[in-house]
């Protein structure tokens, strides 16, 4: 065994202090023991900070690691957020993956939900990290998927501090904007706009496209790796995600967390979207129906999916074995429009690289929280693009926003009323009891309804070809 290093002599000031304390406490053995213990602790501190020691100094900080925190904060503020920034709003969006207008909104709204994001003062009176540094740090983490250690030299934050701030930021975004931009049922006006967009592309009555994707979970615990391991996707554990998007790439449904061994059908069986459709809590009807082949149909709205999905009345699937030119044309059109959800996946992973690479988090809840926040921010950007609020990054020459973004993104459902509710024929929730539930399940899972829809859409697409 290696012997302990020789004790470093105490400085002159500590020796004088020890002599005075010893004279005062000479008659009390307990107090004298306390003085000796304090002197020993002082020797340890002096030794760890001396050139003879190769170890760190104070716990949590390396030797000589004064970060000069204000310097890092001032640099980022002057580069991007100051009155005369070095970089433009377009460069801000390239590096932080969100528009500058959206950042201003987050800066204004998140402290109301999570006051700890504000700049605070510690017990010694020293100012902590400002709000903009915490937000920029978290956005850079989402957009580039760099480690916390890689951001230390830019933001002057310890890795643990960055991790805590990042988690707080995720919870604040989900709490403030989640009810508006995550798994919200579209209103009657929004549902009509979606179907009109797809009708212009040859699919009247379509409510979007649905598909699944996988995310590699590198640090999956050994106890869970058996159910999350799928050799077809990766040698490591994977998590299955299901999403439904419209033609503007807005994600109306996001369901994640199923083990990677599940395929699209297994995820469908546990999906809250289709559970709500079968139970009647989510409407798949329009009040006046839609026109198909010159006739007004009172059918359910449908989704576009790939060939693995079951032959239900709410799915229009590609024809696996076409027997005529009409069916071949319908299959090509369906595959081209169905790529909306694939485009949404690509846009989401391209904008937030943290969803593209292997995840090193130890908790599944943390991964799902990251995914939910990315979907929320993505949907907010899509709405801003749809409304034209990103022209000039939503800022005029005087720096003022041309629209009230807080009113747009913080309220409940937009103009168009509450989510669509139809009569008993459409199966609203809580009406009819068990017989109505069984009737809805039978109608949604009807293969005859699927074949009827496919035949009608095939004739419609063949009739409008070339237009």
Protein described:
It contains 17 helices and seven strands. α8 packs across α14. The N terminus is likely disordered. The protein folds into three domains: 58 residues; 113 residues, no CATH class; 196 residues, no CATH class. It is elongated. The chain is α/β, with parallel strands linked by helices and 467 residues long. Strands 3-2-1-6-7 form a five-stranded mixed β-sheet, with helices on both faces. A two-stranded antiparallel ribbon has the order 4-5.
Question: Briefly, what is this?
Answer:
By secondary structure, the chain is an alpha/beta fold. It has helices at 12-24, 29-48, 69-81, 89-96, 100-113, 131-144, 152-155, 159-181, 188-200, 222-228, 264-270, 272-279, 325-351, 364-386, 405-410, 433-444, 447-463; strands at 206-217, 237-245, 251-259, 290-292, 295-297, 302-304, 315-316. The strands form 2 sheets. Strands 3-2-1-6-7 form a 5-stranded mixed beta sheet, sandwiched between helices.
